[in-house]
Amino acid sequence: xxLPLVTQLGFARREFQRCLAxxxxxxxxxxxxxxxxxxxxxxxxxxxxxxxxxxxxxxxTIDPGLHARVGYGSPAGTPPWEEMWEKWRAITTAAxxxxxxxxPETLPTHWSRQGQTYREDVGTCLLRNxxxxxxxxxxxxxxxxxxxxxxxxxxxxxLSGVQI
Length: 164
Hints:
Layout: H1 4-20, H2 25-28, H3 38-58, H4 66-70, H5 81-99, E1 112-113, E2 116-117, H6 122-146
Antiparallel strand pairs: 1-2
Helix pairs in contact: 1-6, 3-5, 3-6
C-alpha cells in the first residue's frame, strides 16, 4: 500500500484532471496575462514530476526539452493541449513506479546524483509536488471562470474511496 502522502498526490492529480475535463484545445492555449495558459500549466506540472521523480530519483528523463518549454522560470508559451497531456500521462506513470516504492524511512533521505546531494529530502519534495498541484488547480479554476466556462467542479471531489 502506498504511503498516505503518495495517495494524497494521486488524489490531487485526479482533482487537477477533473478541473480541466472538457477544456477544448482552443481554450487550453488562450493566455489571460499575466497567467499562463492551461496547456502550459499541464506541461509545467509534468516538468516538476519529471525533475523530481524521474531525473532526481531515477536518473532518467522522458522529455529532455520539457523544462525549457514549461519548467520553472521558462517563458510563457502556448504548447499544444494534447501534447502536454500525453507528456503528463507518460511522466506521471513513470513517476508512480518510483513513488509506490517509498517508505517512511525513505522520506527523510536525500538523492545524490552526479556527485551532488539534492537540497530537499524526499518527503519535502513529495509535499512540494502535492501542494504545487493544489496551487495550479486553483489557478486553472480561475482561468476557466475568466474564459466563461460553466458548470465547473465544485469544492473537492469524492474522498469516500481514498484509503489513508
